[in-house]
Amino acid sequence: MKKRVILGVVAGVLALTSIGFGKKENIEVNVLGTTDLHGIVSKDLEKYVNEQRKKDENLILVDSGDFFDMQTPEMNSWFKKNSVIVEENGFPILRFKDGEIEGVAPIVTNMGKLKYDAVILGNHEFVSNNKSRLDTLINDFKDNNMEILSANTYKSNNENYTKPYIIKNINTKYGDLKIGILGLTIKEVGESKEWDGEKLVPTKSRELKDQDGYEGKLYMNDLVEDAKKWVPKMKKDGADIIISVVHSGEEPKKPKNPGNKIKELARETSDIDVIFAGHTHKTIDENKYTNKDGKEVIVTQGGKHSEAIAHSKLQLEKVKDGWKVIEKSSEVISFK
């Protein structure tokens, strides 16, 4: 009789475990990332983002910078309307006129329609504007409910020029999930050029502090060193997972241009789960690296000019002290 009672109790515990206590509390997080749009938001990009939003109302959309350019008739027309021709080093160049700018740049409106959560400053945003014009551009993005980030860009008084990061709260049936998005920008925003007898050729890279229109106003720190500073603050601020969105390629293209530091960022930091890269116009489905704590970091990059988008998926499990990433992957969706 006692044996039957014990067996009955054990069976009851097993039944409860299979029904509730042993069930994994897992969710999926989808993050889409564009980069190097250079003024172009294609119909294919719009369609894909809108389709994914229907599947996941908590979808996150980010951009890794170099969104501002004249490569569409719409942007070209707007820029020329607000510009004058000036002479630099003996050559005529278009520059923004002084005073009021007429209308908001079309790229701001077009990106606003897609509801980007975070947009990172790329080098092109600096070289295509001066400090005053860039201030206005950033405010235009805010007015369209998009946050511009660059954690390693500072004012002359050592304050951050933009927000370094945001934390997005997602309500799930297992409790709130906090996703930290950290923005970083390549330190070398421009190039010095000289006339070789036929054309202007780059001679050396130029940091923001030396860029025309920004001297004495803005400067940048090394993006890897600043990531080491900001990530712990994001964790203290409650971030369960961290996505770094970076205007930088994976590794230096040449010795005089050491600013591409994605590999170093992945390997020399802690607590970054996914990195969305940019700047080099490449597509990267998924490159895997091991961080300083022996954990996996994946790197992905969505090409250029709205021709593709990176789609990262993270499987998360609810644990006692927050959330744990149990699986992550990424692929690039090409529209060509």
TrEMBL record:
<feature type="domain" description="Calcineurin-like phosphoesterase">
    <location>
        <begin position="31"/>
        <end position="282"/>
    </location>
</feature>
<keyword id="KW-0378">Hydrolase</keyword>
<dbReference type="GO" id="GO:0000166">
    <property type="term" value="F:nucleotide binding"/>
</dbReference>
<keyword id="KW-0547">Nucleotide-binding</keyword>
<dbReference type="GO" id="GO:0016787">
    <property type="term" value="F:hydrolase activity"/>
</dbReference>
<dbReference type="InterPro" id="IPR006179">
    <property type="entry name" value="5_nucleotidase/apyrase"/>
</dbReference>
<dbReference type="InterPro" id="IPR004843">
    <property type="entry name" value="Calcineurin-like_PHP"/>
</dbReference>
<dbReference type="InterPro" id="IPR029052">
    <property type="entry name" value="Metallo-depent_PP-like"/>
</dbReference>
<protein>
    <submittedName>
        <fullName>Ser/Thr phosphatase protein</fullName>
    </submittedName>
</protein>
<comment type="similarity">
    <text>Belongs to the 5'-nucleotidase family.</text>
</comment>
<dbReference type="GO" id="GO:0009166">
    <property type="term" value="P:nucleotide catabolic process"/>
</dbReference>
<dbReference type="GO" id="GO:0030288">
    <property type="term" value="C:outer membrane-bounded periplasmic space"/>
</dbReference>
<dbReference type="Pfam" id="PF00149">
    <property type="entry name" value="Metallophos"/>
</dbReference>
